[in-house]
Each structure stands twice: as C-alpha cells, then as structure tokens.
Design a protein that fits this description.
The structure holds 2 protein chains of 2 kinds. Chain A has 10 helices and 13 strands. Chain A is an alpha/beta fold. Chain A has 2 domains: 219 residues, 3-Layer(aba) Sandwich (Rossmann fold), CATH 3.40.50; 67 residues, Protein-tyrosine phosphatase receptor IA-2 ectodomain (Alpha-Beta Plaits). Chain A is elongated. In chain B, 43% of the residues are buried. By secondary structure, chain B is of the alpha/beta class. Chain B starts with a helix and ends with a helix. Classes of the chains: A alpha/beta, B alpha/beta.
C-alpha cells in the first residue's frame, strides 16, 4: 500500500455523463508522486474527459477526486498554480513570439521559472524570437510543453503530446519528457501510442469505454498476456482462419477479414500446427510474420480491438 | 512588466498590430467605409424638394402659393424647428415669411439650389408678388448647421460600435475555437485580468479611432467642435465599453467564427437604421421611441452630437450616459456568468 501523502492524484468511482451518454463509468486511479503514469485507450475511451476533470476544466457527475491532497471544489486557485497542462493541439497566439508566449504564461504563476529556463528545457533557444505561427508541429508541441512547465508545476499533464508528429519530432519530445522525469516531476500522460507509454511510463492504466480494463507496469501487462510471441497471418480464403481457434497452442486470436493475429506461448510448437491446419483446410498462406508481443497486443487481447483506430501499433 | 494584466494587454495589442489584416478589417475598414459614406451623403440626391415655411405673418399665403407646384413638398414649422430641419437635411429650404420673405438654404446641398430657383419662380408668378430681386437669399453655411455636421458624429458612433463589438467577439471566439481559452482556464490567470486586458486594449484603440476621426472631421469636412475634446473622449470611451460588453456577451458561448459574424450582424444592423446614424431617430413613430432611446448607439450618437454640435457638457448628458453605462455593466455581468472557457 502506498501511503496517502505519497499520492499526487487519487480518483475513486469517477463518473461523467453527458445527457444520456456515459463518458466515464466509474474510474479509479492513483498516481504516485514522482512517477509517470500512462493513461492509454483508443480515441473516445474517456482519456481526455478524465484528464480534464483532474485539471479542473470539467466537473464530474459523481466520484471523488483529490489532486495533491486537495479538492477542486474548495482549492481551485491553489491547485491551478501547481499544475502544468499541455492540451491536445492548442492553437496559440499566432502573432506572439515563443519568448512572449512563455512570458505571458509565466506571469500567471506565483513562482514561475525564468523564461529562458523554460525555453531551454524544451530546447527552443533557437526559436525564441520566432512567431508561433512559423513553428513546425514538433516545435509547437515543445512550446506547449514549455508553457506547461513555466509555472514550475508539481504535476504535469500531457494529453497526446506527440499526436500528429513525425517520428523524429516524437523522439525529441520523449527526450524532453524523460529529462523532466529525471528531475522528479509527476507526469500524467495520455496517449494512444504504445511505444510512447513504454518509453516514458513506470505504470500504465488502460481505459476503454469509460472503464479501467487493466493496470500495471508495462512488463507486467505484457506478461499478463501469457504469450511469448505473436504471429501475424494472412490467408486465403478467410474462412480457414476460423479453424485456428481450436488449436491448443493458441493463447488468443483476433481475426479481421483475411488477417489474423495469433498470440502463442511457444512459437516452435504453434507454428507447425497453424500451417498444418491451413493446409488441411485447403487454404493458402499469403503472408506470415512473427514478433514479440507489445502493449497493443495486450489491449487487443482485452478488448478485441486495437488501441489505434486502424492498423497495428508501431 | 511581469504583471499578468500587462502581459495580457501586450498580447492583445500585439495580436492587433502584428496582424495587418486584422487591423485593417477591425479598424481601418469601418473608418474608410464611414468616410466614403460621409462623402457620398454630402451630395445625396432626393426628390421632391422639401421646403419648410416658418410660422409667421403671411405664412398661410406662402404655403398656399407653393402647394400648387408638384416638385415642391411643403411643410409648416416654427422658425427654430424649421432651421433645425434644414440642418439635419430633412428640408432643403426654409422660407421665412414677412414683408420681404427670406430664403434659407444650405449651399452644401445641391437640392438647395433647385429649391431656391423653384421657390423664386413660384413666388414670382403670383399676382402682386414681390419681384425676384426683392427676395433675400441667405446661405446657411456656418459650420455646425450642415447635414455633414449632423452625419459625422453619427458615423463616429457607428465606427465605435462596429469596431468594439467585432474586436471583442471575433478574437474571443477564435481563441475558444483554438482551445486557447481552455488552456488559459487551466492556469491560475485571474479571469478579470483577461477581460480587463481586452477592455484596456479596446479603450486605447477607441482613443486612436476618435482622434483620427475628429482630425478628419475637422480638417477634411470642417465640422466644428463646440464642446470639449475631453467630453467627446469620455462619451466615446463609455460607448466603446458598452459595445465591448455587448461583444463579450455575444461571444460568451459561440463556438465558430461564422456564428459570431451572424450575431454581430444581427445586433448591429437594427441599430444602424434605428439609432440615428444617417437621419434623426425622431423620424420613427412615437411608440418606437422608448425602444430606440434604450439602444446604446442612440445614446452614443445623441451624446456625441450634443457635445460636438451643441457644446453640451457631460453633466447635461446624464440620461444617455446612464443608458451606456447600464449596457456596459449589464452585458459584462451576464457575459461573465455565462462565459464558456472550454
């Protein structure tokens, strides 16, 4: 058990309804001080709603929320001064320069970082005098991070910080966040990029349709799958894939048309069985590859659908 | 410099002066449009020619003689009222009865010339009429009595209205659409500082607008300033604040800039017609007057005209200034209650 005062965020039975639609259906969440917790789920799972309630931007329908031991109803002003927020895709003031934008946000906080320090933390020194309009996607996200940091917050909320970025910009941003974690900040990260969560987070919480469906460290979650390998398979006709479900060596199977994802414990036992089954049914293997399981396989195994709207996780 | 209000004000000013397009549409365009209107209305052509016969001995006879002419539309009025109608462009000529009838015309109105010719011709036809040479023609051209003098304060009111509402509504709605309002709401920023910075910036720009407008009115159109510039400034600022309040209220829940444009038109169009920009609001029927006088643009235009043309001081403008203050305060209180940051 973690002592209460070690918790940066404590959420119990969080419910949010919009009219008849249930966005959050009883979420429990603990974030320890100094850790990075990843909140994962597909689009529309309730990640952003959860985070906005924690940030005081929305009121919950029911449930208990404590942030740094305080409640939004009674300590809103004190809390805002101690949280740093990077929203998904904020359009900043086009006409302002990076430096002016950071100075503006710094002015809101009681004990801000120096403007130069916040800019150098996200490595935007070269762009100090650049208008925000001229920044690339990755630079804009780094500026958003600088705005979240400039108040010297106890908790940093990062909502999909790398969505829409190219791989290099994404890695650059990860470096910056990893550097912040090294300084002992609490980070709550929401993402639908598995790799991002694996790189940055100590613990993960999976959310789907407004509920927590799994939690643990990345290693624990992958181990919970009980599968050492994943086989990706494409066969013709698609009907032969249905026969695979009865194979003993199989831990799990998800089929989508002519493609199937098979989770197996031992590759050397499962693979011959799979090939024999397809051959006996008169089918033809169009494509076959194997890999180590990822967090996306965990999600797929739990929900039957992928974390990302389409395709496979990177 | 570190104070949030200063930083927010700098943000607002930079948003305006670093974006030439924004500056032009929210500030330059209304000014230019109003100047074009002013120029156009300097010689607007309207038929028939309207003549006011001032009350006095022999007025009945003059009216009877003029009424036979189709190009003339004759009305009766007390002398002071008749002169005012000439000033406001509602009549083109005033006929003062007497042994030697006197014709008053505004040389700035082309109809004044045709009115003078028509009236002289009609009067000359009558039996026992005074010869045209006996008719005295007095051009009433001293500044302050022309239609342009009436029009310009109204145009200033119109400019203050459209720039104030639009500057507030469009930027707030754009910031909401881009989630910047939500991002700001997640900081400890005082909401009052945010609104205060917008109002301060609007006040500064309103002063620039008024200065520019007064200078052009004076230098290009020769409109006099009977009252003090300070009083014009105070009235104009109060007007700018009431329209900013209205703009904030209109923008308090709107998500898209298209809806903002619609609301802007919906709120400003009626006032453009009702509030006495181009012709006196008194022209509307009596039952509409209480509504018209409760509109902020009516109060602003009336006050600006009273100061600029009649030299009124602020103390004598209690009622219209109270209307403006009520709009400013009322709109802002409601706007801040219903304002949506997310």
């Amino acid at each position: 058990m973690t002592p209460k005062d070690e918790l940066a965020i404590e959420v119990k039975g969080l419910v949010k309804r919009f009219g008849d639609a249930v966005a959050l259906d009883g979420i429990d969440l603990d974030v320890r001080r100094g850790e990075c917790l990843g909140l994962l789920g597909p689009n529309g799972a309730g990640k952003t709603t959860t985070v906005e309630i924690l940030q005081g931007l929305q009121a919950p329908t029911a449930g208990e929320v404590r942030v740094l031991g305080m409640r939004w109803e009674t300590h809103a002003a004190a809390l805002r001064a101690r949280l740093g927020v990077a929203l998904q895709e904020t359009r900043l003031v086009d006409a302002l320069t990076v430096e002016e934008m950071v100075a503006l946000f710094a002015s809101f906080y009681p004990r801000p970082l120096a403007v130069e320090q916040a800019i150098s933390l996200v490595r935007l020194e070269d762009k100090r005098q650049a208008r925000t309009l001229t920044l690339s996607g990755g630079q804009k996200q780094r500026l958003a991070l600088a705005l979240a940091l400039v108040g010297d917050p106890d908790i940093l909320f990062l909502d999909e910080p790398t969505t829409g970025l190219d791989p290099q910009s994404r890695r650059d941003l990860w470096d910056v966040v990893a550097g912040l974690k090294a300084r002992g900040r609490t980070v709550l990260l929401t993402t639908h990029y598995m790799e991002e969560a694996e790189v940055l987070c100590e613990r993960l919480v999976f959310i789907d349709r407004g509920r927590v469906i799994a939690r643990g460290t990345p290693a624990e979650m992958i181990a919970s799958l009980g599968a050492g390998h994943v086989i990706e398979l494409e066969a013709h006709p698609a009907s032969v894939l249905e026969r695979l479900a009865r194979l003993e060596a199989l831990v799990g199977l998800n089929q989508e048309g002519a493609r199937a994802t098979l989770r197996v414990e031992h590759l050397h036992r499962a693979l011959p069985e799979v090939l024999r089954e397809i051959a006996e049914a008169g089918g033809e293997v169009l494509h076959l590859s194997t890999r180590r399981p990822t967090l996306d396989d965990v999600f797929l195994g739990l929900t039957g659908h992928s974390l990302r709207g389409e395709g496979r996780a990177a | 410099m570190r104070h949030p209000l200063v930083q927010l004000l700098l943000m607002r000013l930079r948003m305006l002066w670093r974006m030439p397009a924004v500056l032009f549409w929210s500030f330059g365009f209304p000014l230019i449009a109003s100047l074009v209107l002013a120029a156009a209305f300097q010689d607007r052509a309207l038929a028939p020619v309207r003549v006011a016969v001032a009350d006095g001995t022999g007025a009945e006879a003059l009216v009877a003689r003029l009424e036979g002419t189709p190009e003339l539309q004759v009305q009766r009025a007390p002398p002071e009222e008749a002169r005012r109608r000439l000033t406001q462009g509602r009549v083109h000529l005033v006929l003062l009865p007497g042994a030697e009838p006197e014709l008053l015309v505004d040389p700035g109105q082309p109809e004044g010339r045709s009115a003078r010719l028509l009236v002289r011709e009609v009067l000359a036809r009558a039996p026992g009429a005074p010869s045209p040479a006996q008719l005295r023609v007095t051009p009433v051209s001293e500044p302050g009595n022309r239609y342009i003098d009436f029009l310009l304060p109204g145009l200033l009111g119109m400019v203050l209205m459209s720039t104030s509402i639009w500057a507030m509504a469009s930027s707030v709605v754009a910031m909401r659409g881009g989630k910047l309002l939500k991002r700001l709401a997640a900081t400890p920023m005082a909401r009052g500082h945010f609104v205060g910075a917008f109002l301060l910036a609007r006040g500064l720009f309103a002063v620039v607008e008024m200065t520019f407008f007064c200078a052009l009115a004076r230098l290009v159109f020769g409109v006099p300033m009977s009252g003090s510039y300070a009083a014009v400034g105070a009235v104009g600022l109060l007007g700018a604040m009431s329209f900013s309040g209205l703009g904030l209220l209109l923008a308090s829940r709107v998500e898209t800039e298209d809806s903002a444009t619609g609301l802007f038109n919906l709120s400003t169009m009626p006032m453009l017609f009702l509030s006495g920009v181009f012709f006196p609001a008194q022209n509307f029927p009596g039952w509409m007057q209480p509504v018209i006088h409760a509109l902020p643009l009516t109060a602003l235009n009336g006050s600006l005209r009273a100061v600029m043309l009649e030299g009124a001081d602020l103390l004598s403008l209690g009622a219209p200034l109270a209307v403006l203050a009520a709009w400013a305060a009322g709109c802002m209180v409601v706007a801040l209650r219903v304002f949506r940051w997310t």
